[in-house]
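Need Vitamin B12-binding protein's 3D structure for a figure. Predict it.
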Amino acid sequence: MTAQPLLQKYLTTPLLVLLTAVGLSVGSHQAEAAPQRVISLAPHTTELAYAAGMGEVLIAVSDYSDYPPEASKLEKVASWQGINLERVLALKPDLILAWRGGNPQKVLDQLSGFGISLFYSDPQTIQEIADNLNQLAAYSPKPEVAHQAAAKLLADRQVLEQRYQRKGEPVRVFLQFSNQPLFTASGKTLQSEVISLCGGKNIFADSPVPWPQVSREQVLTRKPQLIIIAGEQEKIKNVQTFWRGQLDIPVLTVPEDWFNRSGPRIIQAAEVICQKMSEISSTP
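Structure prediction for Vitamin B12-binding protein:
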């Protein structure tokens, strides 16, 4: 949700020496063979890679790439501070999985300039996550795994959609991502899609920006019936304290990695949310 700071690093003579040493050159072309050395620059692209059957060719990942557990053992070459350009080049990747919304574009452009193929992933819907999995099949040593994962994701979405269709008014939901300041999600986000899938209504779906900052008064005016947060159970008490005397409604928390990452586990978050919302009356 937040823009990542740009990596303040430019090409220098030592770096050019390194490039010569590792055998990279400007204008080199991508090999036609399936990638054998893949680097992921975001936690969600790491999850997508494993789901697509690419775990055996992953050689490095970003910080917070902790799922599946074996991802934690891989070398880290990117963080919120940027991308370790020299180290990435030294590892000689033939494919990089990049996040346009979070990785510094300047460094991505430099990597592309050295002839390294980049796969951009920034899915905003469950369908787009499935699309990414199907697209990654072309790079995977196990393409059938990627296609199966995509099909299962869409099938699971359909099951939830059919199971939790509501006949009455949808449950009004406030997606709360922080307390001070208050941030929420608009209808243009993956998280809002999950609310709709479960038969709910995101009270800020009409916001013109994806991640608006809102006031207490705006939230109270829209009369939510449920607050959803991402994180540990302990966060519920903090949210209840924040709204004490103003809102006395259920607060649901789902694991942050499930809900905030644009990966296959979003469907697990949806299952938890759908079940909780089914227990709430749609009457004011």
